[in-house]
Amino acid sequence: MLTLFALKQSRAYRIAWLLELLGAEYQVEIFERDPNSKLAPESLRRVHPLGKSPLIQDGEQIIAESGAICEYLLAKFDAHGSYQIAPDHADYWAYHQWLHYAEGSLMPLLVMTLIFRKIDATPKPFFAKPIAQKLTDGVRQSFLNPQIKLHLDYVEQQLNGKTWLVGDKITAADVMMSFPLQAASSRAPSADYPNIAAYVARIAAEPHYQQAENKLGKLTIL
Fold it and tell me: How many other C-beta atoms are found inside a 10 Å radius of the C-beta of residue 151?
């Protein structure tokens, strides 16, 4: 049986969602984050040298990286292309853009935001605090916040008048985009991004996503 190695409150939720959508049989091994660093525990290194989540194991095959995992699962369980866009369809390249955009453009900005919050929260000598704060505030104001706004404005516009990102059905593009938009919407005012807020709410209400949460626990963004 296929196994999903899932870190709590991680990108593994979208892989569990895809598995549920595909009706694949799988089991879950859930790992708790380190209470101090909030990173994956060393025990995950016994599964894969990088010790990251999500990971899937299918027989002797172990696969890391959400995008690669999605492609593997689609190739194995989605022979009829129910959650893909066909190459001859007008939306084919839009579909592929979202598949890569999730991790290539949007998620790195959100990870940087998390890192900067951790820097702010890290204990420092009193004389170093104003220097560190000035540095992080400067990067936020000159780069990080404008870039996040640029990307969220783009996604907000792209979702205008749509239920899902591509066409009128859930695809793997929605699976890949689910976690970064859940993370972004947990901090961005819903009034500023009503389309994103509604999209994230639709994901949370989707029955297969709820089945995934039943197995992994309620998603709470760190």
Answer: 17
